[in-house]
Amino acid sequence: MIFERMEHEDYEQLVFCHDKTSGLKAIIAIHDTTLGPALGGCRMWDYASEEEAIDDVLRLAKGMTYKNAAAGLNLGGGKTVIIGKPDQKSEFMFRALGRYVNSLNGRYITAEDVNTTVQDMDYIYEETPYVTGISESYGSSGNPSPKTAYGVYISMKRTAKEAFGDDSLKGKKIAVQGVGNVAYTMCEYIHDEGAELIVTDINEDSVQRAVDNFGAQAVGIDEIYSVDADIFAPCALGGILNDETIPQLKVKAVCGSSNNQLKEIAKHSKMLQDHGIVYAPDFVVNAGGVINVADELQGYNEERATKKIEEMYDQIGKIFDIAKRENITTAEAADRLAEERIEGYKNVSSTFSLHNKSLIETRKNK
Ligand SMILES: NC(=O)C1=CN([C@@H]2O[C@H](COP(=O)(O)OP(=O)(O)OC[C@H]3O[C@@H](n4cnc5c(N)ncnc54)[C@H](O)[C@@H]3O)[C@@H](O)[C@H]2O)C=CC1
Ligand SMILES: CC(C)CC(=O)C(=O)O
């Protein structure tokens, strides 16, 4: 059944990693390496079953292929999941994972994701160079969340332009679901521009921090969908744009950081469009973090990375334009943009070049 799915959705590789001493149980999925090595974060989650973990890593790895392609990076898509509760973490668990990552010889490069930190990446770095988002003391880029937040803010401005004819967020009401690492910094940018915030989170301290620092209005977990607001920013979970929630939305636009927001991509992106809601595709909006960590591969330069994140404004605009021109949803337009870049490169890479690590180059060095 797994090979059937891999064949159907063009996955390249699925690696199961086990280390008895540290308790590591991890799965690395590599979806597509046409554009370059697969780059994607490492998530730690207490999955209810192994099937759920496999499904998650496959979905997330494919998402990274599209994210990296649409962001204009020369990188493919992959992801790691570690099965377990975050309080079961240890130095040796991440070092064991680092050795597995190293064994892939550069086909996959890891980074932070939900429940993993810069410290965890530093442990992986003890075992392999194929890790990003490591400490700034190594001349590296550190925690990607603030850059992801900046990218969401830039994308939100372009989305506001599409929905309201003006990219200013001043006076706009923004409903934020989940005020964690990314969303807190995103709220800072939005608040500084003069927007009003309505927030919810399952963590009361996170809500209180936004109330105290940004004068945000706090609402209940289920209330966030139906509040009177201009833009909805999902920054917590996947699958939250669905048959039950979309009819409740009063906003004119959706733009947030969480991955896989649409429960069913085709159905729910069309449903948003039919409700007159501008949807900014999640994997384009939340690419700031991966753009930032990818810059490490050239020797990290914050100015260069930030400039590339600011280019997301035009990239989102391009997606809105394609959707209008082709009469498709913005989700379909984003997929098309990513797929065309991957297909285009297949033609370029069919031409022999010594730039690729060729057999002849290897022999020359012997
Ligand atoms: N950190 C990064 O650089 C990137 C993050 N993302 C995505 O953005 C989202 C947020 O990421 P982070 O801020 O790093 O994670 P986080 O774990 O710091 O924040 C998520 C927040 O959502 C809250 N939450 C969980 N369930 C909730 C619910 N049912 N209702 C309301 N709030 C709920 C949590 O309490 C937490 O405060 C995730 O989906 C992640 O995959 C995507 C790209 C990069
Ligand atoms: C920092 C990124 C590599 C995190 C990631 O995997 C993502 O963008 O979803």
Automatic annotation (TrEMBL):
Active site positions: 79 (proton donor/acceptor)
Pfam assignment, any one: ELFV_dehydrog
Residues the entry annotates as binding NAD(+): 178-183
Domain of life: Bacteria
GO molecular function, one term: nucleotide binding
Annotated Glutamate/phenylalanine/leucine/valine/L-tryptophan dehydrogenase C-terminal domain residues: 142-350
Keywords: NAD, Nucleotide-binding, Oxidoreductase
Gene Ontology biological process terms, A to Z: amino acid metabolic process
Family annotation (InterPro entries): Aminoacid_DH-like_N_sf, Glu/Leu/Phe/Val/Trp_DH, Glu/Leu/Phe/Val/Trp_DH_C, Glu/Leu/Phe/Val/Trp_DH_dimer, Glu/Phe/Leu/Val/Trp_DH_bac/arc, NAD(P)-bd_dom_sf
Parts of the chain that traverse the membrane: none
Family to which this protein belongs: Belongs to the Glu/Leu/Phe/Val dehydrogenases family.
Protein name: Leucine dehydrogenase
Lineage, top ranks: Bacteria, Bacillati, Bacillota, Bacilli, Bacillales
